[in-house]
Amino acid sequence: MPRAVLRGLRGLRVRLAAACLLVAMFAALTTAALTYREARGAMLQRAQDSTVHAVRDRVQTVAPSTPFPPDQAALERIAALVDPRTRNDHWAVAVVFRDLWATTNRDFEPSRIPTELRDTVTGRTATAFQRVHRNGRVLLAVGVPIAFSGPGRTTASGVEVYVMTPMQTQVQEEAALVRAARNGAIPAVLAALVLALIVAGGVLRPVRALQRATRRLARGRLDTRLQVKGGDELAELAQDFNHTAAALEEHDARLRRLEARARAFAADVSHELRTPLAAMTAVTDVLDEDAAAEHLDPDTAAALRLISSETGKLTRLVDDLMEISRFDARAAALHVDELDMAEAVRRCLAARGWRDAVVTRLPEGIRAEVDPRRLDVVVANLVGNALRHGAPPVEVALAAERRADGDWVVLTVADRGPGLAAETLDRVFERFFKADAARSRSSGSGLGMAITLENVRLHDGLIRAANRPDGGAEFTVELPRHARVGAEGREDG
C-alpha cells in the first residue's frame, strides 16, 4: 500500500471520523437491541397470554358436561369441543385420562407432549404452558387440568387437556421487528458518518492551517500569522502561534541588525587597517634587509624578523577579513574563464614552492569554466592547510565525472596526519574555528576554510571534509565543468 495512503489512514481526520462512527454505531445498536428485546418480550407475552386464556376458557366451557370417569367417546368429544375446526385450524388438542387419550391431530399423541409440561399439570389444578422448538418451528404447548369444584376445595379429576399451537405469526412479527431495527440503524449510522466527517473537517481546518503556517515559518517566513476565530482551545493555540511567530520575527530582526553591524565593523576596521599596514609592510621590507646585515647584534636582528613576520600575519588577516566582508556584502564577483585544470593546479603549487612537497595525480585534458583567481585561492588554502597541519605525503588529485545533473570536476587534497576529530568535521568550515585538539596549533586567521567554502559555493560547487580510512584528513571539492553563469561574471547571491 502506498505510503501516502497509509499516512492518510493514520491521519487525525480518519481517526476522528472513526471514533464518532463507532460511538454512533454503539448507540444505534444498543438502542435497537434494547428496543427489540422489550418489544419482543411484550409481543411474546401478549401472544402467550392470549392463547393460554383462550384454551382455559374453552376447557372451562366443556368441563361441566364432562362425565366421570370419562370413556373414550367422552375424551373425543372434549377434544372436538376444545378445538372446533371452525374456530382455529392451528390448534392440535389432546385429552388424556389415565391410559385413555384422544386427539384432533394424529401428530399430537401423548408421547409428543413435553414431559416437563405433563409433570407440571398432572395432579394439579393450575394451568401451565411451555414454548417448544421443533423442526425449526416455535410452538406453544398449554396444559389445563379439568377439576371438580366442591365446598371449600377444588379437586383434580385426572382429565388433562393439552393444546399445541404454532407461534409462526409471532416469529414473523419478530423477524419484521429485527428488519425494522436494522433498517433504522443503517440510516442512523450513515447520518452519523456524515456528521462525523463534517465535525472532523471543522476540527481539522484550523489544525491544517496551523500546519501550513508552521511550514512557512520553518522556511523563514517569520511574518506568517494565523486568523483567530472563536474562543476555544484551537483559537488559543492560534494566538500562541502568532505570539511565538512575532517573538521570533523580532529576535531575527535584532540578530540581523547585530550581524549587519558586526560585518560593517569588520569591513570598516579591515579597510582602515590597510593604509597603515601598507606603510608598515614597506618598513618591514627595509627591516628585513637590516636584519640580514652583519653589523646588527643577534637580539636586534631577531626582533626585526619577529616584527616582519607578525606584520605579514596581520596583513594576511586583514586581507582575509576584507574577502569575507565582500562575501557577506554579496559583492564577490565570479569572472569565469575556461582553464586546463591540471595546469592551473600546477601553477598554484609552483607559485608557492610546493611542487616538491606534494604528490599529484593530474590527468591532462580536464577543462572547466572557473574563476582562475578563486580556484587558485581554493587550491592554495587546501594544500597549505594540509602541509601545515597534516603529515607527508600530501596528495592532490583531479578527476572528471559525468552525472545525471551534468559534468563535474573533482579535486581531492589529502594528507597522512592525525586527521580531524569527529566533533570538528561539521565545524571545519566555520569562521575563526581551529581544530586545536586534532591538529597542531595554527598561526593562521581561522578564515581560510571559510573563504574556501564561499569560493566553492560561488561556483555552485560542493566541498566536504572527511577522514581517510587509513589515516589523515581529506578535502573534496566538486565543481561543475560548465559555468552556470555567463563568462562576464556575476554577483554572489
UniProtKB/TrEMBL annotation:
Protein localization: Cell membrane
UniProt record, GO biological process: osmosensory signaling via phosphorelay pathway
Domain Histidine kinase, first and last residues per copy: 268-483
Domain of life, source organism: Bacteria
Catalytic activity: ATP + protein L-histidine = ADP + protein N-phospho-L-histidine
Annotated CDD domains: HAMP, HATPase, HisKA
Residues of the HAMP domain: 201-253
GO-annotated molecular function: phosphorelay response regulator activity; phosphorelay sensor kinase activity; protein kinase activator activity
Enzyme class label: transferase
Record-linked Pfam families: HAMP, HATPase_c, HisKA
Record field: transmembrane: 185-207
Main localization category: membrane
One annotated Gene Ontology cellular component of this protein: plasma membrane
EC number: 2.7.13.3
Keywords: Kinase, Membrane, Phosphoprotein, Transferase, Transmembrane, Transmembrane helix, Two-component regulatory system
Protein name: Sensor-like histidine kinase SenX3
Organism this protein belongs to: Embleya scabrispora
